[in-house]
């Protein structure tokens, strides 16, 4: 969650995301999937599934449910 791309600017964008796909998530009042994912990885909330046999591997940037390995 953060300010919109043109907050505190008088002449355009003050922030430009490196990946264009993230432009829509800027300025949202709702926590995005990527916000939650970053928090989970920072606090190692994904750790319960790490190292378990038969743990499914997610494709296309997906994330496993660490509460249901």
TrEMBL record:
Residues 1-46 form the Peptidase M12A domain. InterPro entries: MetalloPept_cat_dom_sf (IPR024079), Peptidase_M12A (IPR001506). One of its GO terms (biological process) is proteolysis. GO terms for molecular function: metalloendopeptidase activity. It holds the Pfam family Astacin. This is Peptidase M12A domain-containing protein.
